[in-house]
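It is time I had a proper look at our fold encoding. Can you supply me with one protein entry, sequence and fold together? It will help me judge whether the discrete encoding reads sensibly. Leave the record below and I will have a look:
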Amino acid sequence: MPAPEEGDRLPTRFLRAWAGSRYIPAKVKSEVWARDDGRCAWRDADGTVCGSRDWIEYDHVRPFARGGRSDDARNLRLVCRQHNQAAALAAGFSAGPPPS
């Protein structure tokens, strides 16, 4: 099956599969990347932006596990790995393997 052309609608079964998933559509990724300029958007308490370009990851502002959507750029931001792990810990999620 060929890839859909711009403007083509995806079959409903694909939309149902993506609804409520962690999948981030390419259009949303591009919007977030452009908005955050490919840099970590983490803000410290004093308002300073990290701005790192190393180990960039997409992060849900409202965590996915708490109903955050992956198909809305307003709920996503770019953060470096260190700040993504810090956000996970602050939200009460594990950022690594369980302690032995």
Q: What stands out?
A: The chain has one domain: 20-90. The two ends are 47 Å apart (CA to CA). The mean pLDDT is 83. Residues 5 and 67 are 31 Å apart (CA to CA).
